[in-house]
Amino acid sequence: MEIEFVAAGAALPAKSGLARIVFEGESQGGALAQAVAASRFTGAKGQTLDVLAPQGVAASRLVLVGAGKKDAFDALAAEHAGANAYHALKLSGLETLRIELSGGAELAARAALGVRLASYRFDKYRTKEPAEKKPSLTKAQIASDAGDAALEAFPPLAALADAISFSRDLVSEPANILYPAEFARRVKELESLGLEVEILGEAEMMKLGMGSLLGVGQGSVRESQLVVIKWMGAADKSAQPVAFVGKGVCFDTGGISIKPAENMEDMKWDMGGAGAVAGLMHALAGRKAKANVIGILGLVENMPDGNAQRPGDVVTSMSGQTIEVINTDAEGRLVLADALWYCQDRFKPKFMVDLATLTGAIIIALGNDYAGCFSNNDELAGNLLEASAKEGEPLWRMPLAEYGKQIESAIADVKNTGGRPGGSITAALFLQKFINGLPWAHLDIASTAWKKPSSVPTIPDGATGYGVRLLNRMVQDKYEA
Ligand code: BES
Ligand code: MN
Ligand code: ZN
Q: Bridge-partner residues for 462, per DSSP?
């Protein structure tokens, strides 16, 4: 999707449709008043009214896009208006979408972001889709009175949109295509943006003593990988970094504790945490963020096999702590145990935030809109929640309650499951044993990494890219000089 910023009233190209933002209570003139009167359109958020363009409008179609109350029209509302305009005309056969909008450069740029996010589609494996079912819009023009200021406000948002698309692509890819080494290779390609990427294979992880992560990948023919991504964008390149760690289970069968067949295909997106961290690093490099940031991805495939780990096995993590593997399907925490320990040991960051599609229990607790936030540090949790509200990626703080007894093992230092009560909490308590006391937050995004159907205009069905914009916002607002 190509984006342009033009002056209000600039000549319309051929094959274009016009979208006009309408607030609640605002009345239209002439023929439009008639069209509105004959419909249920009130200007409420999310409504659109598609009409043949009246005389005097050069476009072939005109869409009124409801944007709610005028005084509540903020950046997120502008984004949703842009996205709704896109959806109203995407299958119209028209090629250019012109969005008319007033209210300044920031709102114009955010409307453009809305179009970019809404137009994301993962269609690379569709070879026979009829042309009339494919979106026809290829260009969006944002017409405002903001002049060049809108164009200047857009590049960091374009970088964010690119990053979210990158993340959604990773999460959408099937596991026969995106296995750990392929994931690592795609991240390595981001060096062209100025990131530094190191890839550790099984031999190197063995030397580091990562028995917990390696045990998970043991039943797979695909080699496990640990990816270290560095963005040292602060003025002082040696200043203490912040760090993000992602669960990257490229496919989770459950291993020997195998999952039921129904919906198992969903487990291709069990690398959504790593996808979000990779997307964040893409965004930071894309907009040249003035911060030192480390991203770590623990990439494995969890398969049943003659060589797979068994329930009851005891593994030794890099931290030295031993873990009794009660259930091989509680594998994400085993991957993160070593990735988190490695991260703090090597980089001594200010804090670590991990993202993981960790538990089904978080879906039961919060439904599919909110991700869960677990943290030992109120300031960090507060910063995450603040960024979540600004970016429209809902997050809810959960308790790190005193349920530690549930993960005590009779024969090892800890066991990897704590039973059904508080399943997301005991998973977080397990992770907490591998952070060496650092400020830390764990985002359980099993509830938000994938949405079908989606209820948000900027998020298509399927991979959401959840986390990229939230973390990008937190870094931008709190950790840049
Ligand atoms: N990847 C799953 C969690 C998950 C479930 C993500 C559904 C998205 C949708 C995770 O590895 C898992 O299997 N967790 C188990 C843990 C249990 C065995 C303690 C779960 O949630 O059932
Ligand atoms: Mn699992
Ligand atoms: Zn999993």
A: 451
